[in-house]
Amino acid sequence: MSGTPIELEHASRSYGSGSQQVRAVDDVSFTIEPGQTLCLVGESGCGKSTTGRMTAGLLEPSQGRVLYGEKEIDALPDAEKRRFRQAVQIIHQDPYASLNPIRNVTQILSAPLRRHKLTKSRSELQNRLRELLETVGLTPPEEFLKKYPHQLSGGQRQRVSVARALTVDPEFIVADEPVSMVDVSMRIGLLNMLLGLQKDLGVAFLFITHDLAVAKHFSWEGRIGVMYLGRMVELGPTQKLVREPVHPYTRALISALPEADPELTRNKERLSLRSPDIPSLLDLPAGCPFHPRCPMYEEGLCDTDRPAEDAVILEEHLAACYVAARELGQEDRIPESSRAAGAEAARRTA
Amino acid sequence: MEGRADVLSVRELEIGYETGRGLVRAVRGVSFDLGDDESLAFIGESGSGKTTLGLSLVRLLPQNASIAKGEIAFRAASEEVLDLTTLDDEDLRRFRWEECAMVFQSALNALNPVMRIRDHFADTAKDHSETNGSLKGRALTERATECLEMVQLDPGRVLGSFPHELSGGMRQRVMIALGLLLNPRVLILDEPTTALDVLTQRAIIEVLRTLKVEHRFAMIFVSHDLSLAAELADRVATTYAGRIVELGEVEQIFYHPRHPYTVGLLDAVPTLAGGQQELSSIPGSPPDLIDLPTGCKFHPRCPYATDKCREEDPPLIEVAPAQTAACWHWEKVGSDWEARGGEIHERDANRA
Ligand SMILES: Nc1ncnc2c1ncn2[C@@H]1O[C@H](COP(=O)(O)OP(=O)(O)OP(=O)(O)O)[C@@H](O)[C@H]1O
Ligand SMILES: Nc1ncnc2c1ncn2[C@@H]1O[C@H](COP(=O)(O)OP(=O)(O)O)[C@@H](O)[C@H]1O
Ligand code: SF4
Ligand code: SF4
Ligand SMILES: [Mg+2]
Ligand SMILES: [Mg+2]
Fold first, then answer.
1. Most buried of the four, A8, A74, A84, B122, by CB within 10 Å?
2. Res. A78: pLDDT tops 80
3. Can you give the pTM of this predicted structure?
């Protein structure tokens, strides 16, 4: 498979300034090899889209680096930067905001084809447009070519965004909630189409969704990364992460998810959280950011240092949790200060 | 149904919207009964008329909508039977909130941003001062506190807050608490968990479960999310193009569907439990409600469609005790589904 890996290396991104400054993404690292899929999941506001936009080169990290191959994106020579811009495409979360309202579908799709000089004649252009619309299930194409975004439903707009990303034969697609506006009965069709691109053309994906079941379906052979308050709290192969989640937050998400099967969902074991409310990024808890809600919380151990994303390492599977580290025999990965605080708290309560 | 008192009976309801393009037939020939401690879920994709149906049950349809036909009979606490389609304004006001309350789809934006939550409760109570003269001052605060506790919110913190100081899930729960204020017998919830995060959804579902199991409210859920129905419904109605196409007990609908649209929906939704699934979409898209297809409205998307389907719209046929489906070929659909049972059980076996 040809292509170039993309890597986030300790990337952070802040918004705002002074006392209002928030770290929307905090020290996130991962590599996506050509043809691979990584799904990002997590609650609203946890930093998924911000991570996605940094990965696609649309947003500069405030700290850390984004690498295309060996090189930082901003340091790429012009020719390579052009190649990057063509190779890496993004499907935005909000198709209302990302499609120019005064351009019709033909104009929206032909702009990138022209910019990258991908079609030589008018008829070739027309054929390519038709082919693209058929690929994303907007058929018959004639019905859509002249339409403006406001004349399309949310789901149709999302399909146009997908078609636009495909115009330039990308090798890597950042897909930010690409099916959230599409009706249930048609959602799987669009997902399967994207999966087809991955299987048949070897397109790599950073796929963002808040729906774990969708993540499981889309990246069965790939990986899932779970984000919480700007941090990656667990990252591992999909099948392992879904069956044997390590981080208490991932476990909470899995146990909370309602499923479309009455017996299964009514008899599922539930993990109850200590608090239902997600803390504000402006006022992060000390130590592990999940500790005010975590059912496994231990005083001292959990509220002293912040667990690094690789506090637990199980081959390709990482998790940011000290209690899990201890239970998996990786106590040496817990900083001395947290261990001591934990022991001290235990002594006090004994 | 025997041995159960129905609080609501809807018959042959037809609702249309007058638009520049023509008449949108949003609800067509809908009939159902709701038992007084029952929860009924309407599932179907967007535009299938779910919200319109909910609005009609509290008579809050927009100006351009009209009920062309049908009957909505509500048995009030006094045992008096009200015909909702003809209720006058005075009775209607009493009916709303006191007998039947609706929590709207856009609940997240439905609270007035410049009013504290306390004042939202006062506002709801004020409309009913003639009949609820006592619900003022202390009594009001007490009842509001009780309602907020029922939805697992801390009244001390919430009553004095403005909506923007609360999270989406908290606002959704405030809306449910407002619905409970005048102790209605029926609660209608339009997409109560849509657009909320998983952990917040879970909190809402547990609140609704408590209302159902402990407080025995009758409830109608309207949602495109099958899992909400799987969690909470006693019975499920699958809706397509403004009409109920299948109605049955929750286990019947999820485990023994007889309408191809229900089957299509079940095949399109991934579950987290279990192994890799073969999932497929329903081909095509929902019809234009101004220009409906002939015969069965699902025929352009249906793998079972025959000439008969293109010509004649099937009525709801009894396919099992307490289960009806509007499909000419329900027996074939059913036998195909049951034949796949082995495959589905295998999927279940993987759910460890
Ligand atoms: N341009 C911006 N200016 C200021 N704050 C921002 C900006 N974009 C995002 N944020 C904040 O950064 C945090 C992360 O936002 P982001 O959009 O990455 O979250 P997300 O995980 O994609 O959420 P969702 O699931 O709701 O799409 C949030 O607190 C958000 O309010
Ligand atoms: N105020 C309105 N005016 C005209 N058409 C409407 C109005 N509200 C809804 N509709 C139409 O009625 C149909 C049913 O809508 P709705 O009841 O909101 O469905 P659902 O809740 O299932 O998504 C749709 O075709 C919708 O476009
Ligand atoms: S470190 Fe402690 S608080 Fe954080 S996730 Fe692990 S157990 Fe929970
Ligand atoms: S009546 Fe015919 S077209 Fe309609 S659902 Fe049944 S088989 Fe399909
Ligand atoms: Mg986002
Ligand atoms: Mg609706």
1. A8
2. yes
3. 0.90
